[in-house]
Design goal:
319 residues, alpha/beta, TIM Barrel, 9-stranded parallel β-sheet
């Protein structure tokens, strides 16, 4: 029984954290394991062409995870099938819980090279990639994260096609590739995916994604739209405690500061060079919010250059 079916058997639905480049790295995921862990993590997405090039050492860190984070699914992207096969040989040494193919990314540089959601317009290549991944993955379940269409809604045609490929899971984001967050996620289209699944591939797990802000809404949408679970993304940066069920206003100032300090400690352990801290500033607002003096403290922290300086400022604040 694959990991998706195991979670469903145990919990009835799946709450997953979306893979977000530069956000859901192993440091942040380890923090979430202690303050509110989802049922399923995904790694940051790894470009298979980059992994199979001389620049491997610059990208392989995206596959980093620790046992505390499991279950963890590795997400890959690219448009060269043989590079998927080569990358997966390495992935199989990591003790991950699955392989996910990104066919949903709408970043311009990704699209311009025919990758990500551009694969919606190239079913021949999409099938070739899926076939290679399934053949290479061994016992690991294979899934796809995608959208309801590229520049027009084509739920029946595209998701129907994916369901014919024998995938273990499909995560559907309810927007087109060309649409930004100002356009609401179309959960009625995600519900159509479930009906298609029931007809074409009843064993395939369907997750919905888009505009879900907390686990209460996730459970509501799981029932309302009959999906097997929900993947939550941006909301985690508004409330890192989201998967615990706690609301932002329920987290004390002391816990917020302590959690950021803990984040710094994990960052130091994983990355070594504490001077390179700018990459972590994106998390400051996530932790330092919803208490008197938070804005002023954030302003001071954002002006600092190293993790040690941030730690000193935080300790002074709570002393």
């Amino acid at each position: 029984m694959n990991i998706y079916k195991q979670i469903l058997e145990k919990k009835g639905h799946i709450l997953a954290l979306a893979p977000m480049e530069g956000v859901t790295d192993t440091v942040f995921r380890q923090v979430l394991c202690e303050i509110g862990k989802p049922d399923l993590f995904f790694t940051e997405f790894l470009n298979v062409e980059g992994f199979c090039s001389k620049g491997r050492e610059k990208v392989v860190h995206r596959l980093d995870f620790r046992n505390i984070e499991k279950p963890v699914v590795v997400q890959l992207w690219g448009n060269v099938p043989e590079y998927y096969a080569e990358t997966i040989e390495y992935v199989k040494t990591l003790n991950s819980d699955g392989i996910d193919i990104n066919m949903g990314c709408s970043v311009r540089d990704v699209l311009s090279s025919g990758r990500g959601s551009a694969l919606i317009n190239d079913k021949v290549l999409a099938k070739e990639i899926i076939d290679v991944v399934k053949e290479s993955a061994g016992d690991l379940p294979v899934s796809v994260k995608t959208r309801i269409g590229f520049d027009k809604i084509e739920t029946e045609e595209w998701i129907g096609f994916l369901l014919e490929q024998g995938l273990d899971m499909i995560t559907v984001h309810g927007r087109l590739s060309k649409e930004g967050y100002a356009t609401p996620s179309r959960w009625n289209e995600i519900a159509k995916c479930v009906k298609l699944r029931n007809d074409i591939s009843p064993k395939t797990v369907i997750l919905g994604n888009g505009d879900v802000k907390d686990i209460g809404q996730a459970k509501e949408y799981s029932d309302k739209y009959s999906v097997d679970g929900v993947m939550i993304g941006r909301a985690i940066l508004t409330n890192p405690w989201l998967f615990s069920g706690k609301k932002p206003e329920e987290i004390s100032k002391e816990e917020r500061v302590t959690t950021l300090l803990h984040h710094l400690g994990i960052f130091e352990k994983e990355k070594g060079n504490m001077d390179i801290f700018n990459s972590q500033k994106k998390y400051i607002k996530a932790y330092i919010s919803n208490f008197d003096g938070a804005v002023e403290l954030r302003t001071r922290l954002m002006e600092l250059n190293t993790a040690d300086e941030v730690r000193e400022e935080l300790l002074q604040f709570v002393s």
